[in-house]
Amino acid sequence: MITLLEAMRLVQNKATGLVVTCEFTHATPADCSAHSYSRKRYDWIAPQIVHNDVDVVMGGGVSLLDKEGEAYLRSRGYSVYRDDLAGMRADNNGKMWALFGKKEMDYDLDRDPAQQPALEEMTRKALEKLSKNENGFFLMVEGSKVDWAAHGNDPVGMLTEYVAFDKACAVALDFAKKDGQTLVVVVPDHGNSGFSLGRRDCKGYDKLTKDQLFSFVTGVKNTAQGFVNKLNAAPSTEVQKIFKENAGFELTDEELQALYNCKDYKNSPIPEADRTEKESLSALYSNSLYGFVAKLLTSKTCFGFTTGGHTGEDVILAAYHPQGTLPIGVNTNIDLHRYMASAVGLLGKPDELTQEYFVPHTELLKGYKYTILPAKTEKDNPTLVVKGKKQQLTIVPFTNIIRKGKKANDEIRLSTVIVYVDKNNTFYLPRSITKYLE
Predict the structure, then answer these.
(1) In 220-268, where does DSSP find H-type helix?
(2) Which pLDDT value is given to residue 279?
């Protein structure tokens, strides 16, 4: 249950960091720094990441860091920036949160470089801060929206996000080679979309040169989402201009009809109730404007997709180790965890730490009187009240703060977060918590 990020912080006092382009509560950053059976429970995940004392967090999610979370961070000496690129760049504090965008950050191709940083820049900034810890560090960097573009079958978004991630990898590798003590592992969590360089209805694709294959996508100035934003912000009379200036072509009459019949095209001259697939080009028809644009862009290439979901092929694995100890061959995700844990001297330790820091309250509190008070509202969480011979503890989940005394006036800060699972009505607590009951 304990993560490698948590283990390295707890046992080795290493600095920790997360750099993403999705919201900071999304699946991958949450997997490194929080505990929830549901990836959708941002109300559980956000406070855990805040209270897990991650030294550097950079990515999306301005709206997901609440006032209480920011107050806690500032009380712990963090710099906190919301849509403040200049502030992030000028910051010299070792602990920093810098968030951009209400939820996720913009695609790299669509972002305003005066408003949002590139993944490459965030990676460099995080390394600059974390490497000051003499004990070393753990940093997870995710090119989050490669996956998003793949789900949407947007070839422009996929390729440009991958290039942005590749630049971030270069920053990490350059640092590791100069540092001589840093392990770098590059791996996706799964395949997605069945993307191919070649499509059945694109005759002669196997004879095309590199330039012929990629010349169109390299000239497009926006992702599918970028086009959606522009189309919904301008009158329908501007459609041809938008595509001509940003993709180098104008829509045919059939393509225009397919666009006008998209249900979520805000500026369509066709009333929403009258829009229908029958009146559009069936090959390009999509209930969503994003889907239409993605199909349109793909139709101008020889690229193909088999699905809008995850795929089961083996994925790439790349690594750099200063002594050349590499994970060769086929490795499962469990193998990679063990490889990384072994590299930092923690092989087997996460299992031990889980038994130390995440003990079911029903096991840990045997012999004590305790009550679980139900949540007062849907937005609240239940409260665990424990009575010892001399002291009483009040415990609210998803933070590292507990309160002592009958009036719960004395605050105690733990080294790990408290987790609660509603399915079994169980709190997961550190064993050391009982000392506060004496």
Answers:
(1) 224-233, 239-247, 253-260
(2) 58
Q: What are the start-end ranges of the H helices in 251-332?
A: 253-260, 289-299
Over range 191-215, report the average pLDDT: 95
Which of 282, 219, 284, 211 minimizes the C-alpha distance to 251?
284
Kindly report, residue by residue over 326-353, the tens digit of the pLDDT. Answer: 999 999 999 999 999 999 999 999 999 9
Topology classification of domain 4-193+308-355: Alkaline Phosphatase, subunit A (3.40.720)
Three-state SS for 62-123 is HHHCCHHHHHHHHHCCCEEEECCHHHHHHCCCCCEEEECCCCCCCCCCCCCCCCCCCHHHHH
Binding-site members are 26, 28, 142, 147, 151, 189-190, 310
Q: Quote the CA–CA distance of 135 and 30 in Å, as a whole number.
A: 24
Distance CA 6, CA 306 (A): 38
Give the predicted TM-score (pTM) of the model: 0.96
Do 359-437 and 4-193+308-355 fall under one CATH topology?
Answer: no
Overall average pLDDT of the 286-314 stretch: 94
- Helix 239-247 with 224-233: angle, nearest 10 deg: 150
How far apart CA 106 and CA 230 sit, in angstroms, is 13
Q: Considering only CA atoms, which of 363, 375, 357 is closest in space to residue 426?
A: 363
**Residues of each annotated binding site for Zn(2+):** 147, 151, 189-190, 310
Task: Give the architecture (CATH level 2) of 359-437.
Answer: 2-Layer Sandwich (3.30)
Boundaries of every domain in the chain: 4-193+308-355, 197-304, 359-437
Distance between CA atoms of residues 164 and 158, nearest Å: 10
pLDDT at 275: 87
pLDDT digits (tens, 9 = 90+) for 362-399: 999 999 999 999 998 888 999 999 999 889 999 999 99
The partner residues of 304 in beta bridges, in order of sequence, read 196
Binding region for Mg(2+): 26, 28, 142
Give Rg (Cα) of the chain. 25
